[in-house]
């Protein structure tokens, strides 16, 4: 369970929590301060010169949904910190979350509604009024709706949940369209599918990292990007800081060492795509050694018969002794936990791999117990989770566009021209759509191709709410409130939709005039369900307490017991992964990974993130290709040599970084750079490995198998100096990072300052 | 006593750990290397809190970055047994600080709280302190850096912006310490309570690897932490008597 337990958490929320402000109304702050010699004769209530006001809200930089507290001074946002009462991040926040300030104050924001006057992509935008912009779109939508062609309207949004998701859904239903797609490049489709298949649950369980004694991670970079990285980091830290004998052990299995791999006690490289086979090999050993005593023991034994450790050793490239050692350790350590994701899940066999990980958890008795995997109760409130679009769904949209079935495409906050491989031909599909509308606040690769731009606020200027996807073992919801008044003539996405709905005449089903009203009405429904455990008297008090605390939760539990069906047991198997490109022509497997700094590329326009060294390589402002030292030697490559990476789908150029912890036949590249647009900080920097990916699909989910592309390396003979902040990457006997043995943590008896001072004579 | 022997006398005394025992507070940080994951949340927190300028790619290529706290990385071993260790490095606030003795204008000095402080408008930019600092944590402004408007609206009004020719470095977020002291005074308390001051990096750390506090308070978290048997100081053999204590990584 998280550090904040339910009772303590509810006390915080009921009492009003730590926040200070509720709802920012400071319109005047838009004006230049020099216009006022005395800024205010009567200052707004929450404005005291020289004293900071904090607002609690929700981070929108990734889908984890951490609570934030934003420090404002004189109407300007100064710093983002974690909200201490939010159980997901408990006051902590990652670097990208803190850099949200540079989304708000980014110099490249779109400040006015714009209409394209020239050819698409020609950047000849002309400023229009909101009235005009909304009319242009609403007129078109109304015509289509009247002609019963509402289904030719498609709404493509970044993954949103909460009441904005409901609003969009209801808007599209009124239009008569079922083409609503939530698309995030990094959505863990395979994880959802695997949990559905094995546990029969359509939401993710809670992975209790904090209390586990042994964590086996199959490819999941849980400290950087997997589901809820800040929450996992808190768990990791807590586990590390337990008393010496209870210190948790972490094992990471992946072809290229990630940040989680570096933090782990043991890092193991299995042949890419065989992680699931490895898990089943361990499962086989657990059952055959009699370490699993369930009644369905015989069924498991039969289902796993093809995965004896010796067979698995051959397929995964991991010694049999390691497999049996890990299996014994996993079943003997109580509680233990296995998780899977990242590259391991991004193969053609992704879902089966993650089912195999669940099998391990089940056989070791980790399901439903503290320190293992706990089922989350249904999400907080009454807000349903929208379905997320897979790569296959995106291809369907692209196909529909080519068939002329799409008349209007509205894109909100997502950038598929950048995140879909060139082979998907999304850019070409856009050309077939008569009207493309973007609500982005930046000229990203997709938005420059729009006919009409209705720019949305940044999340720090908007009302919204968020119900964290993975949960924390009990349902949580959080309200996002504006912390500064909008800098520019932009509107919140919700307000844009409300404006359209109003013009088209949907007021019977969508009665609200502002997003604030819509959110408040939604939370009134949650409050009035009657089972809200709060000390508040009446909705107004509840609402004020909610805004102050920024977060709210319920005390329901998920179920704790689970037994798999016979059919599930029988269906357990992991096929060998499929790669595109022959091994002969393309000897290397490309391993693209989400950049710790830019995530899927959305962070590339933040100067703090550009100048922050990559944690593993210390490279700034660029892209690189990670190559094993031996391979680099064989190819005669050194750091900084420019190489062409060629896949069956295309090629790109990047400098070499010799990376000590990557398999010899794997090369890795960070995702995030290589923007051709997206503002001054991101544009024309590095390369985007997603462009050259082969469209290999995971069959069950239709997810893009991003780790299944084979490539070859062609040296160009050119060389650049990689810009990075660290000098030598080795300690060279200076003993800067000191370590101490594991067994009982015996430490040297050297005391601080024990070295005698040389007397000057 | 000759002038020279008086100087030597003072020098000998000064270079001894424990020379300063009259501090009001003795601010100290501990860094648990076993918990640090190298995520660099501390770096962004510091940039935001302390108005640290971005120097751009060209200047970075010349090694002119400004990062009051950075995460150093040290590889150990070769594939498949390669390991990567992280080490957050910031001004160590040495009590026998090599940088303090070399400044010709006394722009850097020790204050009553045991902090190694930098007086920006006294600094004339000789960069001697940066040469003498064994931790390489002093950063020089080679230019007047600017913030593309409206990024400047984010600047923290509690921290001054440094201009060309000025050396800068970690202050342990002295503005936060001052604020906490003021609050304590307003409350009629004599001292700041443990946990009341957290520098930006400590506040943000997702694994709670960083702990900050007053080591004169034996009840404080940082006091407990620095008496952990894993405690050591980086480059301790130089006798800098630093105020940042690292806890060894456990190699299990």
Runs of chain B in which pLDDT lies below 50 for 5 or more consecutive residues are none
Number of strands of chain B: 11
- Fraction in helix of chain B: 10-25%
Mean pLDDT of chain B: 92
Query: What's the overall geometry of chain B?
Result: globular
State the name of the first-level CATH class of the largest domain in chain A.
Alpha Beta
Overall domain count of chain B: 1
CATH architecture field of the largest domain in chain A: 3-Layer(aba) Sandwich
Tally of structural domains of chain A: 4
Percent in helix of chain A: 25-40%
Describe it for me?
The complex is a heterodimer of chains A (761) and B (252). Chain A has 4 domains: 6-107 and 469-482 and 536-553, ADC-like domains (N-terminal domain of TfIIb); 114-184 and 388-453, Rossmann fold (3-Layer(aba) Sandwich), CATH 3.40.50.740; 189-374, Dimethylsulfoxide Reductase, domain 2 (3-Layer(aba) Sandwich), CATH 3.40.228.10; 596-719, Beta Barrel (Barwin-like endoglucanases), CATH 2.40.40. Chain A is built from 22 helices and 28 strands. In chain A, strand 10, helix 8 (259-263) and strand 11 (266-268) form a beta-alpha-beta unit. In chain A, helix 1 crosses helix 19, helix 9 packs antiparallel against helix 11 and helix 9 (275-288) packs parallel to helix 13 (350-363). Chain A starts with 5 loop residues before the first helix and ends in a 20-residue tail after the last strand. Chain B is α+β, with helices and mostly antiparallel strands and 252 residues long. In chain B, 24% of the residues lie in helices and 17% in strands. Chain B has 8 helices and 11 strands. Chain B has helices at residues 3-14, 41-49, 57-61, 98-102, 128-132, 174-186, 200-204, 221-226, and strands at 27-32, 70-76, 83-89, 108-110, 116-118, 139-140, 167-168, 210-214, 231-232, 244-247, 249-251. Chain B has a 4-stranded mixed β-sheet with strand order 8-1-10-9. A two-stranded antiparallel sheet of chain B has the order 2-3. In chain B, strand 2 and strand 3 (83-89) form a beta hairpin. Strand 28 of chain A pairs parallel with strand 11 of chain B, so a sheet runs across the interface.
